[in-house]
Amino acid sequence: MTTKRAPNSAAASKNITKRIQELGDWRGKTLAWVRQLIHDADPEIQEEWKWAKQSSAGTPVWYHDGGVCTGETYKQVVKLTFYRGASLQDPQRLFNSSLEGNTRRAIDIREGQKLNEAAFKELIRSAVAANSAARAGAHPRTSSKDSGDTHDHLSGRQGTGPGALGSALTPARSARISRVP
Prior knowledge:
This protein has helices spanning 9-23, 26-41, 117-135, 171-178; strands at 46-50, 59-63, 67-73, 77-82, 105-110, 141-143, 150-152. By secondary structure, the chain is of the alpha+beta class. It has a single domain, classed as Alpha-Beta Complex (Aspartate Aminotransferase, domain 1), CATH 3.90.1150. The strands form two sheets. The chain has a five-stranded antiparallel sheet with strand order 1-2-3-4-5. Strand 6 and strand 7 form a beta hairpin.
């Protein structure tokens, strides 16, 4: 795997590899697998190592024009927290944790579980597009190459004018949030 290196990215990549090796169980294998999927989805993504302190070795973070997601490991789950998860379309319903917030969403992967790889890669690409749009001062929108239409990731509506923008909580997302156990 080759990554575009930020000034601290080489050290971060070493720390992530070290964490994977130290885990030495299903969590390490899972973290290595999702790391590869992230790089497959966006070869320009950068790795960072954040929040290292005495009580915690730190957390892998993937960046492209801003934070994309973190890769935390716990006893029962590998948690992938997306910085702008609440604003991303998730038609395959990969997000299964942290659903109540207004900004972040997470995917908890338990031992033996697998992700829909294509849907996960699309979430990574959508998160990068949202970061790039926010950095450019625009709404997170993507264009359809075939039709020239735009899709607003915040409202789920099609269109190009100001009326196309709406609430970050679509009725479907709002209903899904209310069903959280």
